[in-house]
Every structure is written in structure tokens, then in C-alpha cells.
Amino acid sequence: MFSVLITAIIGLITGASGRIILPAQDPGGLPTSLVVGICGAMLAHFISVLMGWFEAGAVYGHVTSVAGALTGLAIYRFLLRIETGL
């Protein structure tokens, strides 16, 4: 249970950071970036646990959550073809 909460917080932080690192005109704004960050973090964390790469709550599992959240944001922007202005 605690691992899920930490993963959600990591997703929130990464989603907000993604807005700062890659500024863009997302249709949903900041709330959408936060939700996509949480979903990416949860998905990456649970896949890594199911595959047996890490145990739930492991520090490396949370690093994987950050990578999943950033990947989720990148895929979201790719699918909607949002220009980042970089």
C-alpha cells in the first residue's frame, strides 16, 4: 500500500516536472500532465514488479517509475502531435 502511494507521488512530481522540462500547449493543461505522469509511473512500477525485476517498494523500482512517467508524457505528446517549442 505504501509503495503505491510513493509511486503516485513520484508520478505527480514527474508530471509537474515534465511540464517544466518540456513546455507545451497540452489540451488538458497541468491536470492532464499530472494524470499521465501518475499512470506512467504506476504502469512502469507494476510491470517491473510483475516481471520480477524489483520488489515492491524498492528504490530502483521508484527510479523505474520516473522513467515510466516521462515515457508516458512523451507518448501522450507524440500521439497528440504537440509541439514543444524546442
Question: Any descriptors?
Answer:
single chain; 86 residues; mainly alpha
How would you describe what is shown here?
The model has no long low-confidence stretch (mean pLDDT 77). This protein is an all-alpha fold and 86 residues long. The protein has one domain (2-80). It has helices spanning 2-21, 29-50, 59-80.
3D shape? elongated
- Percentage of helical residues? over 70%
Secondary-structure-based class equals: mainly alpha
Specify the oligomeric state.
Answer: single chain
Quick recap:
The relative contact order is 0.22. It is built from three helices and no strands. The chain has 86 residues and is an all-alpha fold.
Task: Annotate the secondary structure layout.
Layout: H1 2-21, H2 29-50, H3 59-80
